[in-house]
Design goal:
OB fold (Dihydrolipoamide Acetyltransferase, E2P); 5-stranded mixed barrel; BirA Bifunctional Protein, domain 2; elongated
């Protein structure tokens, strides 16, 4: 049947349920236990054989979505699911009121019901409820995805995530794991003495990163605002204000393309610690990721495609130049000379070579030769100053800054600085960014004068870092696309079906 035909049949059943005098959309379900609670307590068939369950005499009321239903004479066997757990409901005509038996005839897969009865175990060892009463909760007017193969079309899975969660148990487990990962990250940070805070999502000046922002308008104030690209400048204001350690887990928005590793709306954790530097951020990051891997996933070794990634500390550390030389099979001395860097960039067809600085070209060479090959956790340090307008310079070489990016599985997971706290230097770098904007770079930073004012009130030495939560979840759950770890990823609108006009 076509979907509209299924719907018509189910609407007829709904009317019959109403004719039985049932409240077909009740306000509350009869429920004494969740299915996950029962599974955790009684799933072990050896510890809880049927004889022991019957002796326990536990009468439960549970609710769930009907996944299967099969009739065998005067008995009916059905499976209910809730929160990724299943339980069997065992109906016998002699155990039920006539009205409840009539309800069974009007059920479809996908309906929600509640059943009440003693807990038991079948001869096959399956935890079940011997049903004595039924409460109808909700009629599914449309059928679930095909029974045995679930929802296979990726596009439909992302657009109709609710069906994906119902039909693909692995997907549900991924998002349950994501929740536990975020909780573990938050717990670790709190144990380290960090305070969780919230900063504005709408900002009058987008700052803290080089990216194109989304723009909106506040009618009452008649002013443009920007969805934040990073919380950095507000978190730093809190350090100026006297907080020692702060962190925030929340959304950032960047008006850029879609890919398996990019979604315009994504989750980041940023943290700042007064008195610390880049080395402290490295140690914190190693301990954080190894702890989360052990606590949530049970091991520091995690599969990633055909490889295994070890989250055990310490992580490898390489300068950007060393990484280019190693993975690009390039003589290190060639990276010390501007002309040599420019020649190497031309050899791999970097765009606009003559218009770029040596530092920017080093970034291009790193991306071309090394980034995708950094599978095991690796800190890349010593970035050119052109790529890092908010970072302290290296001692003895002001062409480079005290920054790291952490790469795992061939993608950037974290970005950290020894934060720039000289307001005069910071103002000069903002002005350089403004010059870039005037030259056509619409991702360059805007001047935030209030942030400069805050620095002029005194900003202590500080380590800061941002960690991509979505990509961390990808790595720990072996998910190859960011869309697989974001419940509702941004999708292109579907095109309406075109119909020929009648002549």
């Amino acid at each position: 049947m076509q979907p509209n035909q299924y719907r018509d049949v189910r609407l007829e059943k709904l009317e019959k349920l109403k004719a039985l005098g049932l409240e077909v959309w009740p306000r509350k379900a009869k429920r004494t236990h969740g299915l996950a609670e029962l599974a955790a307590a009684y799933a072990d068939a050896e510890a809880w054989p049927n004889e022991r369950l019957e002796a326990l005499g536990l009468v439960v009321s549970v609710m769930g979505r009907l996944l299967t239903i099969r009739e065998m004479g005067k008995s009916v066997f059905a499976h209910l699911t809730e929160n990724g757990e299943k339980i069997q409901a065992f109906f016998r005509m002699n155990d039920l009121a006539e009205s409840d038996w009539e309800v069974l005839k009007l059920l479809d897969m996908g309906d929600f019901i509640s059943v009440t009865g003693p807990l038991m175990r079948t001869k096959t060892g399956e935890l079940s409820v011997r049903v004595k009463g039924v409460q109808f909760l909700s009629k599914a007017l449309l059928p679930l995805p095909e029974k045995w193969h679930g929802l296979q079309d990726k596009e439909q899975r992302y657009r109709q995530r609710y069906l994906d969660l119902i039909s693909n148990s692995d997907v549900l487990k991924t998002f349950q794991t994501r929740s536990r990962i975020v909780s573990a990250v938050r717990r670790f940070m709190e144990q380290q003495g960090y305070l969780e805070v919230e900063t504005p999502m709408m900002q009058p000046i987008p700052g803290g990163a080089t990216a194109r922002p989304f723009t909106t308008h506040h009618n009452a104030l008649d002013m443009d605002l920007y969805l934040r690209i990073a919380p950095e400048l507000y978190l730093k204001r809190l350090i100026v204000g006297g907080f020692e350690k702060v962190f925030e887990i929340n959304r950032n928005f960047r008006n850029e393309g879609l890919s398996v590793r990019h979604n315009p709306e994504f989750t980041m954790m940023e943290m700042y610690e007064a008195g610390s530097d880049l080395r402290d951020m490295m140690t914190l990051t190693e301990n954080l990721l190894s702890t989360v891997a052990r606590d949530v996933m049970g091991s520091e070794a995690r599969p990633w495609g055909e490889q295994t990634i070890s989250f055990a500390a310490p992580f490898r550390r390489l300068t950007m130049k060393d990484a280019i030389a190693e993975y690009g099979a390039i003589e290190r001395r060639l990276l010390e000379d501007g002309d040599g860097v420019r020649a190497l960039a031309r050899a791999v067809h970097v765009e606009d070579v003559d218009a770029k600085t040596t530092g920017a070209l080093l970034g291009d060479l790193f991306e071309h030769h090394a980034e995708k090959q950094l599978h095991q956790p690796t800190f890349i340090t010593d970035y050119p100053i052109e790529l890092s307008p908010l970072t302290k310079t290296l001692e003895g070489d002001d062409r480079f800054v005290d920054r790291f990016e952490l790469f795992i599985g061939g993608m950037e997971i974290a970005n950290a600085y020894s934060e720039l706290n000289d307001p005069v230097d910071q103002l000069g770098r903002f002005q350089a960014q403004m010059d870039e904007r005037e030259a056509g770079n619409d991702e360059a930073m805007l001047l935030d004068q209030d942030f400069i004012t805050s620095l002029e009130h005194g900003f202590p030495p500080c380590g800061g870092e941002g960690i991509g939560i979505d990509r961390l979840v990808m790595l720990l759950t072996n998910s190859q696309s960011i869309r697989d770890v974001i419940l509702f990823p941004l999708m292109r609108p579907t095109k309406p079906i075109e119909t020929e006009e009648e002549e």
